[in-house]
Amino acid sequence: YIMQKESYLVVVSVLEGRNFPSRPKQNIVIECKFDGELLATDPVPHTESPGFTTELAWEMDKKSLHQHRMHRTPIKLQCFAVDTAKDIKENVGYIVLDLRGAQLKAQAEKWYTLLNTKYSRPKPSVKISMVLEADEPKQAPFKAQEAPARTVSVDVVDNVTPVLDEEEGCFQIGRRGLHNEMYVLSVTLGSAFNLEQLIPGNKPLPGVSPGYFFYYSLFESDITNDVFHNIFSPEITPERASIRIRSTVEHLKSYFTQNSTLQVHLCCVDQLLGSTSVSFASFLSNKNLTMLNSSPIIIDGMFPLSPPDKSLEPNIVQPKVNVSVCLRREDVPIDSAPQPVPAMETPRKEKYDDAAPNDHPKNPPPVVSAAEPAVLVDTDNDAASINSDVPAKMPQSTPPPQIPAVEDNSLATTETHTDVPGPTQHFRFSLDIKTISILALPHACNVFVKYSYPFFGSFAPVMTGPVQVFNNSEVIVPRSMCVFDFACTQKLLQGTFRSLPITLEMWHRDKETDDVLLGTSILTLGELISMEKDKVLITQNGKKDVAFRQTRRGAVPVITMTKKKIAELNLIATLEDFGQVVDQAILRPQQVSEVSDKPTTQKSSKPEPQNPRESNEYKAAIELELWKSQEQEKFLKKMNDMENQQMQLLTEEFKKRDKEREMLIAKRIAEYQKLEKQLSQTNASLEKREMQISSTEQELAHLKVDLQREKERTVAEAKEASQRMKEDCIHQVQLERERRTVAEDQNKKLLRQVNDIEQKYSELMAQFHEYKNQLSSRPEVRMEAELNLLRMEKGEVDRKLESVTKSKLHYKQQWGRALKELAMMKKTEQEHAMANLKQQQQELEALKLQYLAADEKKDLHNDQHKINEIQKELQQLKSVAETKVSSIAIESDQKLLNCEEINERVSRLIEERDTLLRTGVYNSSDRIISELDRQIKEEMQKQSK
Question: Rounded to two decimals, what is the model's pTM?
C-alpha cells in the first residue's frame, strides 16, 4: 500500500454581482490565474445583477500551500466584458483575495468591490466566498494502479513542443516517462538605464502621457511588467515569471537548441521602441546541464537595447536592461548556486503573482561597499571610524579615540594599518525620519520604519522605535536619526545614488502575531546629490577645515501592494563631504631611547645626601606639582562651566529655530496638502470626464455600427420585398387573365341558360294565367276568398281592442307613477321651502298648488278627450266589423299578418307620442310629435286599405 500526500483544495466561489451597467450585446467573464493554472467562469449576460454561480478550485499539497502563505501570494480575479458580435475582450476591473483568509471552516460570503474599474459610481461588486477543503489521504493497492505511461498519448521523440498539462499545472517537453524531472524556468526583469535614447525623433509617441513596459513571450504566453511613465529615471519593480517544466535534460537541451534566444521588447502603448536578445547558450553546456540536478543555472547581466531601425548614434551611451534567467530543478533552492554580482543592482522586493509554488524569491546580490578602512580622524562632528567592518549606526555622542602623543619625538601607532588611496573621500550620510502622516489605515497600529542600504557597509536593517498612530494624524518618530560614515570615490557615489534608491518599509508590530508589512516607500538619492552644496566649518586634527553639506527635505508616500497611498514619511536626508582621506604615516612601536648630546659629567667629589626627599629641590618640585594640579582643576572647572553655558545657549537657540522650522514646515505641508487635494480633485474630475468621453465615444461607435448594420439590413429587406412583390404581381396578373377567360366562358354559358329559362318562364306564365282565369270563373272560389277576408278583418279588430285595453292599463300605470313622483316632488319642495321664511313659503306653496291643479285638470281633460276619441274609434270599428260580417270576403293569410304588424306599429307609435307629451318637454306643435302623428295616420290608412 502506498500512502498519498496530504492535499488541499482552495475553492473560490463566485456567486453573483451587483451595480453592473446593462449591456445587451456583451457577456461578462471572471478569470483567475493562480499556482500556474488559469481558471474562468462561464460567460453570463452583462446585466445589472449577473449570476455566475461558479466554483474555481486549485489542488495543492501542504508544502505548496505553506509556501504560498509565507510569500503572501495574492489571488487576483480579473473581470472581463466580452463583445459577442466582435469577439473583443475588455478588462473592466479586478479583485485581490488574500490566501491567508482561506480557512477549513466555511466562511460567510462577502461583497468585494472591483478595483481600477472603468464603470462610474456606484462601483460594481461581486459576492465571493473562499474556503479551504482538505482531502483525506487514501490508500490504494499498488497492483490496482495503472502505469502512468499508458495514460499519456505517444509523441515523437524528436518533438519538443511544450504541451500544457492542466492537471499538474506544468508544461511537458518531450515524451513523458519515468525519468522526467520537474524543473522551473524563471525570468526576472530588473533595472534599466538610458532608455530615453530609444525615443524616436521622427514620429511622436501615442497619447499625452504614454506608459512604457517591457514585453516578452515565454512558452507562447505574452508577459508584460508594470507600466512606468518616467523613462528618464524608470522605477521598475522586478517581477519574476516562473514556469514549471516536466522533462529530461536531453529534451531540455533540444528545446533550447531550437529556441536559442529570449526576445525582450520595450513598448509604448502599441509602438515598439527597442529590443534585446538573451542567449540560452549557458543552458546548452554539458557541464552546466550535468550540474543542473544539484545547482541552478543562472544567466544574469545588462543587455543592450537597440531600436527597430538600428539607428542609434555610435557616440551615445547604450541603453541597457537587466535580465536574469534561471533554470533549476523544483526541489533545488535558488540560493544554492553562486549568484553573479552585477555592477549596480537595487535590492528591491519582488512580486510573486505568477510564481510557481516552490519558487523561492531570489535574494538580490549583495552590493559590496567601496568603503575602505582608514585611520581615525578628529572632526567637529566626532566622526567615528570609517572601517567597513564596524556597524553602520554610530553614536554621535561618543568622542573618537585620539592618537596619543609621545614626547621626545617618539610615535605610538597601531600594529596593523592600511593606507587609503588618494582619490577616496570621506562621506557621512544621515537620515532623520521626523514624522509620519497617516492618511488611511484600517485600525490603530504600532508603526515602525525599517530599511537597509548595503552600500554603506552593513546589511543589518535599521529600525525606528514603534509609535502608535491613528487615521488622519501626524506623529513624531522616536529614535529615527541614523548616521553612516563611509569612504568611496565621487564617481562611485554618484552612480550608486542615482541607480539604487532606499526602500523604506512601514511595518505594524503586533504582540500576538508576527509583524505585518503595511506598505513601502522609495527614497531616490539621485535628487540629494543634485541639491545645492553648503559650506560647513569643521575641526579635523586640530585644524579648521571646510566641508560640503547637501540636504534634502520632503515627504515620500507609503504605497501598499494594491498601489494605494496610506501614509507619508516626512524626512531629512543629509550628505556631508569631508574631502579626501589624508594618509597617516603610521609606524610600528619601537623602544624609546634617550640620546644625550652632552658628555656625561663625572661624578662629583661631594658626597650625596642620604635622604633625597629632604632636599629643597624635591620640596619645591612637590609644591610646583600641587599648584599645577590645583590650577589644572580650576581651569577644567571653568572650561566645563563655559561649555555648559554655551551648550545651554545653543540648545535654546536650536529649540527656537527648530520650532520656527517646524511651524514653517507645518505651514508648507498644509499648503502642499491643500494644493494636492485640489490637484487630486481636478485629476479626478478630468479622469471622470475622460471616462465619460470614452464611454460616449464607444457608445457612438456602437450606435454607428448598429445604424450601418440596420441600414444594410433595411436595404436588403426592401430589395427582397420589392422583388417578391414584383413576382407576386406578375403571378396575380396571370391568374386574373386566366380567371377572366374562365369568367367570360361562364358568362356566355349563363346567358344561354338565362335565355332558355326566360322562354320556359314565359310559357309557364301563360299557362298559369289561363288556369287562373278558369278558376276565377267558378263561384265557390270567390265565396271562399271573401270568407277568408272577413276572418282576417275580425282578427284585426280583436287585436286592436286588445291593444287599446293594454294601452289603457299602461296609461293608468303611468298616471299612478306620475302622481307618486308629484307627491315626492311636493315633499322635497316643502322641505326646501321650510328653510325660507314662512310667509314666502305659504305664498309659493299656494302658487305651486294652483299651477299644479291647472296642469292636472288640463292633463286629465286631454286624457279624457283621447279616451273618448279611442272609444269612438272602437265603436266605429265595431260597427264596420258588424256591417262587413254580412258580406264575407276572403283574403289571403298574408294580409292578416300584415294587419297585425300594422296594429303593433300603431300602438307603439301612439305610446311613444303620449310618453313624450307627458314629459312636458314637447307639445303637439313640435316636429317630432307631428312626425309621429303623420306615421300613425299613414299606418291607419294602410290598415283601412
Answer: 0.28
